[in-house]
Amino acid sequence: MDILKIRDAKDVEQAVQAAIAAEQPLEVVGHGTKRAVGQPMATNAVLDLSALNGVTSYEPNELILTVEAGAPMADIKSLIDSKNQEFDFEPMDTSALLGTASLSGTIGGTIAAGLAGPRRIKSGGARDHLLGVAAVSGFGESFKAGGKVVKNVTGYDLCKLIAGSWGTLAVMTEVTLKVMPKAEHEVTLVLHGLDDVTATRAMSAALGSSFDVSGAAHLPQSAFRGATGVLAGLGSQGAVTLLRLEGIGASVVHRANSLTAALVSFGKADRCEDEASQAAWVAIRDVTPFAASGPLGAWPVWRIVCPPASGGAFGRELARETGGDVIYDWGGGLIWAALPPSADAHAGLLRSKLAAIDGHATLIRGSDPLRRAIDVFHPHSEGVAALNRRVKSSFDPRDIFNRGRMTRA
Amino acid sequence: MSIMMPVPDQAILDRRSSIVAALREIVPGEGVIDSAAEMQPYESDGLTAYRQPPMVVVLPDTTEQVSRVLRYCHDNGIKVVPRGAGTSLSGGALPLADGVLLGMGKFKRIRDIDYENRTVITEPGVTNLAISQAVEHEGFYYAPDPSSQIACTIGGNIGENSGGVHCLKYGMTTNNVLGCEIILINGEVLRIGSKAPEQAGYDLMGIITGSEGLLGVVTEVTVRILKKPETARALMIGFPQVEASGECVARVIGAGIIPGAMEIMDKPAIHAAEAFVHAGYPLEVEALLICELDGPEVEVDELIARVEKIAKDCGATTLQISNSEKERLLFWSGRKAAFPAVGRISPDYLCMDGTIPRGKLPQALTRIRELSQKYGLGVANVFHAGDGNLHPLILYDANKPGEMDKAEAFGADILRACVEFGGVLTGEHGVGVEKRDLMPEMFSDIDLAQQQRIKCAFDPQGLLNPGKVFPTLHRCAELGRVHVHGGKLAFPDLPRF
Ligand SMILES: Cc1cc2nc3c(=O)[nH]c(=O)nc-3n(C[C@H](O)[C@H](O)[C@H](O)COP(=O)(O)OP(=O)(O)OC[C@H]3O[C@@H](n4cnc5c(N)ncnc54)[C@H](O)[C@@H]3O)c2cc1C
To answer: Do A194 and A75 share a domain, yes or no?
Structure first.
């Protein structure tokens, strides 16, 4: 395998132009932590962007950060942390789930995967925080889209397409992101012993309140098979439903009291605060109960997105029928499912049931042969699939980038 | 009108009566309008300086009709301009002489309200405010709140990716829509997204939002709704210099406070608004900052105290805090009526919409003042200061020869300055025809080509809303060509491993 180590943005353009001329597909890689996500790619050359790792500008007062696409997440996080800021979309660190080295990954990979964490339900995903991008298209041309200000409708919002495109549209070289001040204080309310359907109702009630809930997750008892640390402690009495409140101290206390009262019919809520609360949400964000090193490490893992209120009933059925485990985030709108191995990792069953509730599922962890055998990304209806293909061609007509990753040949 | 629109196709115009008849077959009764008098209300949108009667107006009321109209136009090479309420300030809904104006005003039904999922499914002709009103009794609302919200439609909001004073905290249209039904120019009906928080595959909803009617016609929208905050209170703060108000905004954000809204008006805007609505604005100050904080009472009280301190440190000379809902709305009444208020003091005005990095506010204001002197035209400024979005209102009189051209040149210079300061041409009103020819100030030919390729993926013949957004129309075949840089070694001089 040819590995092309990029030194600067100009290199990217050259390499892509050469790849076009040679009809050579490229696998686009930052740190390579998510290479095992998607259909196995039909590429035999790697475009390694990890040296493209500079910080172009960081203006804490403007809440804006511009960095090169290969910049390590760990470095960026500590940079913005030093100003008490963070990414509001709480990007997931996939290392525990996928079993790669921890604290690795680049900002480019984070945006391309678009895997937002618990706060997505309030603050949006990567697509909502990517303000601008410089990239090289499959035409071998360097282009930019968006801008470096928070409010902008000038021209088409190509950033939206690029976020979550798994590197199949263009090679990002520089990204501009919105950052946000960290909350001063956080409290998590913990409800105990709810079944999945009741928990979904509790989460809907919380998210439909004016108490500005910034995380709503439910862990059924069985999910604690693989839980460690803070989560294991929380789950010692069975299923838990977690509701996060963030903000200034007095406000968080007020909202915690009000929400506890509003949810009294679901039982008495315990509290966990600050560091403990933070650790719990990191574990949920990173799906550590299904960690590659844990008891369910060998099982395929699906990421299911559906209308939140349908989550509990759907997940409970799925777990029952397959003997798998589920964890709910986004008030039921995101279900992580570790399912016992089978020929298709239950893709057929899963997707036929999802059609009824307008949901979709992506296989995030699975062996190479499994990923060859099934559609890793959710299949679209015919018309939308055709439009997705035309969108791909409008960026990358020769199918140079991450060939075959999002659609099965 | 100083902007060139695509030359009308005489062959199409020659067939007008048969086209009208064919459209009547699809949309019976009053849904097809072809008399000059009845078409007059559709001649322009909110950018009234530009007018053009369409070839024919069609007002469908079902998805099927829209699909058939579009397919007919597609098969016959007829241009189509979608229109919601026609309040666009950039000419997005400006008709074409040889085009069908497709009015979506009859799509007025809210189809589904779902409090558990916190979503509303609505037809595109429903007004922005009507969505909030439909869920108000349960304490919910739809967050993006353009000042035109009584009139503008959710379809138009999708077209322009509209914002409002509260989008600083709650986001623009794009951050608050989950899915849609869209009809492509060939009549194909597609469903994008759902009530789920995220779509599968490429983020098509993200590209459709803000596409100014160039990609397809939206016939249904799924939006997310929020529960209203427990309380909201506003501070009304006067400053002796505009720069100080800008500094105050920067410091509030810098202190980690994200208010529900932060708006600035300069002296001419304050005076115009006060004369119009009598909101009790201080008339001696140079700038008025309205800062709204929302949330639980304890939080609002504490943040008001913090903002108050910052404002005093920045040299505020007047400061009032709303003590009732009535008073809060009174503070806002002048700001919300700023456009019509300015309309009273000047025969005509042009509303600009650039965005700059917040910190550049003082420089931008100085530049606008200099330009005002250079062009000899007055200007009143209102800003969505929290997100750096400027709305200079350029005052002119269209009846004075040459004044409109002068006003447009002044506006273009302001937008060029926005780009020079690191900002963009439009924050929420869209490019339309108004800023079309300024696009090269911000984007290279390559950048624009990449955007147009997306257009080609949806509408390869370029029949939907041509003449908007892009300064030059390229053929899709030409844009799709890959230029192979032959004769070079594969991957020259790159380190390999
Ligand atoms: C007094 C005043 C105040 C305003 N304040 C604000 C403000 O605070 N914030 C802000 O963002 N804007 C503001 N605007 C601008 C305007 O109201 C918005 O752009 C609004 O979203 C336009 O909605 P509309 O229904 O009038 O759409 P139109 O003007 O009819 O159309 C707008 C664009 O959307 C397209 N379109 C409309 N419907 C559809 C559809 N169903 N499918 C596909 N494309 C469609 C049209 O082709 C056009 O390109 C203001 C305008 C006025 C006159």
So the answer is: no
Number of domains chain A is built from: 3
Range of the domain at A220: 185-285
Q: Is B139 on the interface with A (CB under 8 A)?
A: yes
With beta carbons under 8 A apart, name residues in chain B contacting A63: 253
Residue-level pLDDT at A50: 95
- State whether B118 and A207 contact (CB < 8 Å): yes
CB-based contact (8 Å) between B149 and chain A? no
SS3 labels along B137-179: HHCEECCCCCCCCCCCEHHHHHHHCCCCCCHHHHCCHHHCEEE
Could you tell me the distance, in angstroms and rounded to a whole number, from the CA of residue B430 to the centre of ligand 1? 9
Question: Does ligand 1 lie within 6 Å of residue B86's CB atom?
Answer: yes
User: What H or E segment, with its residue span, contains residue A368?
Assistant: helix A368-373
ipTM of the complex, rounded to two decimals: 0.97
Query: What would the pLDDT profile of B335-350 be if each residue is shown by its tens digit?
Result: 988 989 998 999 999 9
Give the model's confidence band at A1: pLDDT under 50 very low, under 70 low, under 90 confident, else very high.
confident
Q: Answer yes or no: is the C-beta of B19 below 6 A from any ligand 1 atom.
A: no
What percent of chain B has pLDDT above 90? 91
- Taking CB atoms and an 8 Å cutoff, what residues of chain B touch A138? 482
Q: Could you tell me the pTM of the whole model?
A: 0.96
Architecture of the B10-103 domain: 2-Layer Sandwich (3.30)
Whether B461 contacts chain A with CB within 8 A: no
Best CATH choice for the domain B231-340 from the list 3.30.70.2190, 2.30.29.30, 3.30.1330.30, 3.10.180.10: 3.30.70.2190
d(CA B348, CA B354): 20
Confidence of residue B491 (pLDDT cuts 50, 70, 90): low
pLDDT in tens, B172-198: 999 999 999 999 999 999 999 999 999
Q: Determine what percent of chain A falls in helix, strand and coil, rounding each to the nearest 5.
A: 40, 25, 40
